Structure formats: structure tokens, C-alpha cells
Amino acid sequence: MSVGDVLETAYGPVDLAHCAPMIRAEIELLGGADPFASQRACAPRIRARIAGLAEEAVRWRPAPGQWSIAEVVAHLVQTELVYGYRYREIVANPGSPIAGYDQERWIDALGEQHEAVDVLLDRLAALKATNVAFLERTTPDARACWGLHSERGPESLAALIGAIAGHDLLHEHQIDENIRRWEARGAQPGAPPAAGDL
Fold first, then answer.
1. Distance from C-alpha of 23 to C-alpha of 160, rounded to nearest angstrom
2. Which of 98, 157, 159, 176 has its CA 20 to 30 A from that of 85?
């Protein structure tokens, strides 16, 4: 709920002057949920969603330019690495520049999506555990600190705490949609993908 220039959340106030519209939208996806519990449960939720899916389904792209489930999970791992740095830089050096990154380029260039999805989910769980432990220890003063994102402007640690949890949910919905679309095309385990799908 927004009160004046402050967004009230389950984990404390977020100054809207340090919360870009995209970040606010991600916070709102979280609703009143605990962002720390939600983040800890991210990898297990994805593991449950994809249990029993054929390898073809995990690697399938619904359309050109749209990510496969494996690419989504690789992106979540990469995001944890980037945000882990951002959290710490904001607290250690308030007001410092925070570089954006090209998420599409990272997926294309780094190749992590070709690894086993179970391995990627293990990494995601480990990174989440590390980052959430850090975030939970932060004080209200630390959460009010902000960095200057190269594209979005000032972003506080408080804003990022909720945004990253909402970002997880956004991509979990993307995974659900990929599964729905895969099943809708009548694919069976081991069936060859349509041309251009992988």
C-alpha cells in the first residue's frame, strides 16, 4: 500500500523516490508475502513445477526470442549474482553507481542454460540462502541506503528486497506459461520439437 511518498510493505517502508516504476511493479507482485521466505522457497517451487517434465520441454522455446525454462533458471542464477553485489555495494558505499546489465546478452554469451537444470537450481538455492541471510541481517538504516542504477535511477536496498522476490514470481509465472504452452501443443516425452523450437 502506498502512503504519500512511501510504499508500505510486509518488511518495512520503501521510499518511492528510490524505487523505479519497474521495481515497484515487482514489489507489488509479492503482495503482503514475506520476501525472505518467498525467496528461500523459489528454487523448491521451480523444482516442483518442472518435476517429471521431459528434457525437451525444459529446453523448448515457445517462440523465437522467448526463453526456455532452462534459460529462465539460468537467468535467475545470474540475477542473484548481480543483485548480491548490488545489495552489498549499496550498503557499503551508499549513493554509488550501480551498473545495469544486458540479461539477453548474458544468456546468449555465457551458456549456463546448457547445464543440467537440477544443477542450476542447486546454485540458485545456495545463492538465495547467502543473499537472504545478508538481507535479513540489514538494519532499517541500511535498507534506506540507495545506489544510482545506470538506467533506472536511485534504488534503495529496501526496494530491491521486495523487487527480487517479485522478480522470482514473475519468472515462475513464465515457467508455468511455458509448461502450459508445451502441453497445449500435444507434446509427448521424446517427441521431436517443432522446427525452430530449440
1. 7
2. 176
Question: Cβ distance 162 to 27 under 8 Å?
Answer: yes
Distance (Å, whole) CA 187 – CA 194: 10
Q: List all residues 6 or more positions away from 173 whose beta carbon is below 8 Å from its beta carbon.
A: none
Domains of the chain: 2-184 (1.20.120.450)
- C-alpha cell recorded at residue 49: 513445477
Task: Calculate the CA dihedral of residues 64, 58, 116, 175 and round it to 10 degrees.
Answer: 90
For residue 63, give the DSSP letter: S
Distance of CA 124 to the CA centre of its chain: 10
Residue-wise pLDDT for 17-68, tens only, equals 999 999 999 999 998 999 999 999 999 999 999 999 999 999 999 999 999 9
